[in-house]
Amino acid sequence: MSNYSGIIMIVLLFAVFYFFLIRPENKKKKKLQEMRTNLQVGDQITTIGGIVGKIVSIKDDMITFETGEDRVRLLIMRWAISTNGIDTQG
Questions:
Q1: Which CA distances in Å does 68 have to 6, 40, 43, 51, 87?
Q2: Is the per-residue pLDDT at 50 higher than 70?
Q3: Do 84 and 44 share a structural domain?
Q4: Looking at the predicted structure, is the pLDDT value of residue 88 above 70?
Q5: Same domain, yes or no, for 88 and 52?
């Protein structure tokens, strides 16, 4: 039985890592990808750099959005969007 105790400990350690680190991270990535896929013109977004604006155009993976009172337009990649809506946690 003592021959298997080392293997059992390794398996238990892997299971703990999977359920507390890997699985939640995969769920978070899936939710973020779904949010980015479902973006529509008119949505308020926040980029990974913290810039907030409203989407005015979507073409494939390129998104154009307006920011500020002077309506500056920025062109970004879809992966650069952090949240849909104004991030109030920040």
A1: 60, 19, 15, 10, 16
A2: yes
A3: yes
A4: no
A5: yes
